[in-house]
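Q: C-alpha cells for this one, please.
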Amino acid sequence: MLNEEALLALAARAADADGRTVWPAESWDILRQTGVLAWCIPQAYAGKGRSTLELLAGYEALAGACLTTCFVLSQRDAACRRIRDSAHEALCHALLPRLARGESFATVGLSQLTTSRQHGKPALIATPEGKSFLLNGIMPWVTGAPQADHFITGAVLEDGRQILAALPRVSPGVTVGPPLDLMALQGSLTAEVRCRHVLLENDCILAGPAERVMTIGRGGTGGLETSCLALGLAGAAVTFLQKEALSRSDLGATARRFDETRSVLRQEMHRFAQTSATAEETSALRARANALVLRATQAALTASKGTGFLRQHPAQRWARQALFFLVWSCPRPAADATLALVAPPLDHECPSV
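A: Here is the predicted structure, written as C-alpha cells:
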C-alpha cells in the first residue's frame, strides 16, 4: 500500500517531526502524494475505501517509519470516520472529497467525552439556541489544532445528553491555544481549543442529542488503532535489534521473542477487526501491545548502549514515544490491564494458595 521509498522518506524526517513544535509539512505532503489521505474515505467521496485490514497494515508500517506523522493521520482519519458514519450526506459531500485530496484538514476534539476531565462538570457544554446550540468550554487535547479547518467535537447538554458536531475553525469564539509542551510527538501540535459563546448551526450536527453519542455509528479501525500504532513503533525497535543481531549473536534470541510476540498480537488484532471483539478483549490486546512497545523500545535502547542515549539516535526517541501509549486514549479498563502487565504484584503481595 505504501512503497519503501515513501517509508524511508518519512523515517528520515521522524526525528525532526518528534522533536520540533513545527507542523511536519514535508511528511504530511508525502502522505498526500502517495494517496494515504484517501485510504479511509469511501470511493463515493473521492477516497480509496481501503478495507479495515488494509488500513491496519498501512498504519502499522507508517507508525514504524514516523509515529508523529502516523498519530496525526490517526486523528484526522478518526474525524473522517465520524463524518462518514454520520449519514449527513450534505456534510459528507462538502468535507470528505477535500479531505481525501489533502486540500483541508480535520481533527478530533473528543477526549472530553471519553478520558479527559471526567470527574467534574462537563468540559464543553452545549446550550440550545433555537435549532442551533451555543458552545462554551474547552476541548483539552486536540491534535493538529492550529492546522485544522474543522474540529469533530462533542458537547454535553444540561440534561446529560450529548451532541457530536463538525465545528468550523473559523467560527467566532473559537480560540486555539499554543501547542502543549509534550515529551514526544511535538510536531503533532496538540493544543487546547476553547469555545466562548460559539454558535453551532444545526446543519453541523453529526449525531445527537443522545446519550453516549460516541457509540453511534461506530465502525472501522477506531477501537484497534492505538494498539496498531504501538505494534508499528515496536516494529521499528525490533528491526533495529534484528540488524544488531547480525553482528551480535547475543541479541538474536531477544529479537526473535519480540518479533514472535508482535506477530501473535498482529494476528489477534486482525481477527478482532474481522469479528466482534468484546471491550475486555480489546483492552487486553491494548495492554499487551503497550507492554510490547515499552519493552521492545527499552531493549533497543539497552542494545545501543550509551550511543542510544544521544539525541540523534532513534532508540531514545522510540523509548520516549513508547510512553505515549500509557496516556493516549487510555480508559480505566485499558489502564488497569496495562498496570497489571508492567507492574505485577511482588511475591509478598500475592495471595497464598
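A few notes: The chain has a mean pLDDT of 91. The chain has three domains: 4-105, 107-215, 225-341.
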